[in-house]
Amino acid sequence: MAKRHQFGIDFPSRIRRMQEIIMSHSGIDEFYEILRLILAKYFSERDGAIGLPAMVECNEYLSDHTAEITDILDGAVNLQMPPNLFDDIRVTFGEVSVSGQDFTALDQTFEHLTSRSYKSDKGQYFTPRHVVDMCVEIIDPKPHEIVCDPACGSAAFLKSADSYSLSKYGGAPALYGFDYSHRAIQVAKMVSLIGADSRINVHQADSLKFGNGKCDSATIEAFMGDEFAGFDVILTNPPFAGDVSHELFTSEYELANVYRSRLERDVLFVERCLRLLKVGGRMAIVLPDNKISSKSFRDLRDFIGRNSAVDAVVSLHRYTFLPYTSQKAAVLFVTRLSPSYTAYNSSIKFYRSDKSGKSSNGSFVYKDSADTNRPPYLSLDHDLAEIAQDMRRQ
């Protein structure tokens, strides 16, 4: 029987404890203070330090990297906590290596820090690392390609695409992430710095806007420039929840004129992503199961069929997104085609994941004798790698 790994004082647990210390004994914003601590630890590790340096040294590291930090964080560069708290913080941090962490731990940490402010009410959840890696392996991003996530959150898909392409092809694609949340962008920039040597280009933008003068938000097209002709790859998990007013989008979106009584945000994201892809571009998008199977969204599926070849649908196990949500989801894989009046004839491969790598309470379930320090895609008891391998053979 597959064993269930019991987290001890792992990195996310340490961060939560430090957050509690800061919140209980000071009035400062714990989100930014935790990010300053992680950055100070990261910069000190580049000089060979093992534990978290003393507070004075942390502030010296932060000051020495002011330009990098001000691109990520708002406000002060140096630590703001009272000095008498730092000893407890230092003990709690221990000798954990930030740069040596598997990014699942950092993703979980950033999910915890950001969830209180914006994620759950919009149906936007941490995408499990083994789901991310499955999508990336199937899409197979290459160094010469331009890869985008228009709802990037903590940039997990882009970080995975960077690692995958470097490992397989010896070079990284051009990587672009966009998100409406300012804090999500700050986290994504940290992931880019720590995990991708700043190769991920991250910008705050309302990805659903086209820049027609109706709002002040910068648009994806504006950031990409006049010569932008579309992305080669889109990897994304857009917000599941949240209705929007169709009046705001009827002039820009075909589907806004279809779903006039109730227009859901993820429906718009599907149309937006397809239009952002160049012809021949590839996409993996995580969607609620009802978008794939419900009669209510037949027009959405017809739109997808008229604008792309549907390559595959992977139905994810109900435990996949636990403990954040039990909502059933699927991953849709498509190749962009020129718009057509009728749906293209697609040879669609359907897969069902029967092993999620999670238990019913959302904890990880590992393979027998697995090294739990290895990435979840390699160590968890799931079947997504088998699905990816089968699709890559087609």
List strands and helices in order, with pairings:
Elements: E1 3-4, H1 11-25, H2 30-45, H3 55-64, H4 66-70, H5 83-93, H6 103-119, H7 129-139, E2 146-149, H8 156-169, E3 174-179, H9 182-196, E4 200-204, H10 220-224, E5 231-236, E6 243-244, E7 263-264, H11 265-276, E8 277-288, H12 289-293, H13 298-307, E9 308-315, E10 329-336, E11 349-352, E12 365-366, H14 376-379, H15 384-393
Parallel strand pairs: 2-3, 2-5, 3-4, 5-8, 9-11
Antiparallel strand pairs: 1-12, 6-7, 8-10, 9-10
Keywords:
single chain, about 400 residues, alpha/beta, eight-stranded mixed sheet, two-stranded antiparallel ribbon, 15 helices, disordered N terminus
Span between N and C termini?
Answer: 32 Å
Number of helices: 15
Summarize the amount of helix as a percent range. Answer: 40-55%
User: How are helices and strands ordered from N to C?
Assistant: EHHHHHHHEHEHEHEEEHEHHEEEEHH
What percent of residues are in strands? 15-25%
Write down the overall geometry.
Answer: globular
What does this structure look like?
Helix 11 packs parallel to helix 13 (298-307). Helices cover 41% and strands 15% of the residues. Strand 3 (174-179), helix 9 and strand 4 form a beta-alpha-beta unit. The protein has 394 residues and is α/β, with parallel strands linked by helices. The strands form three sheets. An eight-stranded mixed beta sheet has the order 4-3-2-5-8-10-9-11. Strands 1-12 form a two-stranded antiparallel sheet. Strands 6-7 form a two-stranded antiparallel sheet. The chain has helices spanning 11-25, 30-45, 55-64, 66-70, 83-93, 103-119, 129-139, 156-169, 182-196, 220-224, 265-276, 289-293, 298-307, 376-379, 384-393; strands at residues 3-4, 146-149, 174-179, 200-204, 231-236, 243-244, 263-264, 277-288, 308-315, 329-336, 349-352, 365-366.
